[in-house]
Sequence to fold (61 residues):
Amino acid sequence: MESITSRPARLRAEQYASHPVLPEGSMAVVMSCWDGVLSWAIPYIVAFDRAMLRSRGRARR
Fold:
C-alpha cells in the first residue's frame, strides 16, 4: 500500500493548482502546507495511538 504522504509535497501542490475545482494560488498553497503538516504528524499520531491502546489493554487486565 502506497500512502499519499510518501509523494513530494511540491508535486501535490502542482496537482492542486491545476485542479479545476480549487481556485488558483491560495487554496493550493494551503492544501500543500496542510499535506506537509499531515505527512510529518501521521507517524507521531500512529505511535501515540498504539501507546494509548497498549495502556488501555493493561488497564483492562
Q: What stands out?
A: Residues 7-60 form one domain. The chain has two helices and no strands. The radius of gyration is 17 Å.
